[in-house]
Design a protein that fits this description.
- This protein has two domains: 58-194, no CATH class; 203-270, no CATH class.
- 54% of the residues lie in helices and 20% in strands.
- It contains 13 helices and seven strands.
- Helix 1 (7-29) packs across helix 2 and helix 5 (145-153) packs antiparallel against helix 6 (156-165).
- 14% of the residues are buried.
Length: 274
């Protein structure tokens, strides 16, 4: 019979494993975290364990690879859809979990983005693998703004309050109509990639909020190509914080006259403009 650890014993082991893993990654990669960032990372692990312990202890399969092969784009290109999920079988029910680094408030405000993906995974599990699936859910790892602020301010009462309200588990309903729609959308995106059609989101989209955060903050600031994006350049140039810090002179600097002329010529060639 396995030994049951107390919560304090588990937390001690998690802390030791976290510190050991951090030191190994630091020595291998040479990257060092500030004490505040390191503390936040450890809290994410500990809080996730406390909130999701029942799920974590009962997961029966981790990183299960799902694949939907031999799909075709609108122009006839072949492609496959693949994903990684965790499976929990408990008594007579089977749950499928997809872990995301997003916060729960954002996921709940944009459920359609996640329903389609999980419905494709459910379709693969039910129809291609021939196994029953009773429930699907997103596990949203990020704390969200309110809990993050409480941690940042080191307000223990507020941390306890926000932690109690934090719910990273978000059930998703299965709807077969989503499957056909998302497969078509994947096909359309594949065609656009193969045809070198990379259009940026319009400026208005960057200024819209996804939950409590601007699209430009949540999405664009994590994009390595943002400084080559016309929409982001226009957004950044219109942001007082960036322009006042000297950002404007760098983003507006296209080089000398020869550099500018070469830049124009290359872009005209790519756009097939005579």
């Amino acid at each position: 019979m396995p030994i049951q650890l107390t919560e304090q014993e588990v937390e001690k082991e998690v802390r030791e494993a976290f510190n050991l893993n951090y030191e190994r990654l630091r020595l291998e990669g040479g990257h060092v975290l500030t004490e505040d960032i390191k503390r936040l990372a450890l809290l994410e692990v500990l809080f996730y364990w406390k909130k999701m312990r029942d799920v974590a202890e009962n997961i029966t399969e981790t990183e299960v690879k799902l694949s939907l092969p031999e799909q075709k784009t609108p122009t006839g290109r072949k492609f496959s859809i693949e994903g990684i999920v965790d499976i929990l079988r408990e008594q007579d029910e089977t749950w499928m979990y997809d872990i995301k680094t997003h916060d729960g408030d954002y996921v709940r405000s944009n459920l359609h983005q996640y329903e389609e993906q999980l419905n494709v995974y459910s379709h693969i599990w039910n129809n291609l693998r021939g196994e029953e699936l009773d429930h699907t859910a997103i596990i949203a790892l990020s704390f969200g703004e309110k809990l993050n602020n409480a941690i940042k301010n080191k307000n223990q009462d507020q941390i306890d309050y926000e932690f109690a309200r934090w719910d990273p588990l978000i059930p998703i309903e299965y709807d077969k109509q989503h499957v056909d729609k998302i497969v078509r959308e994947f096909g359309r995106v594949v065609d656009e990639i193969e045809e070198n059609k990379f259009l940026p989101a319009p400026l208005e989209r960057l200024k819209m909020k996804d939950g409590d955060v601007l699209f430009a903050t949540r999405v664009c600031r994590n994009c390595d190509a943002r400084f080559s994006c016309s929409s982001y350049r226009e957004y950044a140039l219109g942001t007082s914080v960036r322009t006042s810090s000297g950002y404007k002179k760098y983003i507006e600097d296209l080089g000398n006259e020869v550099d500018v002329e070469n830049w124009k010529s290359v872009n005209l060639e790519v756009a097939n403009i005579p």
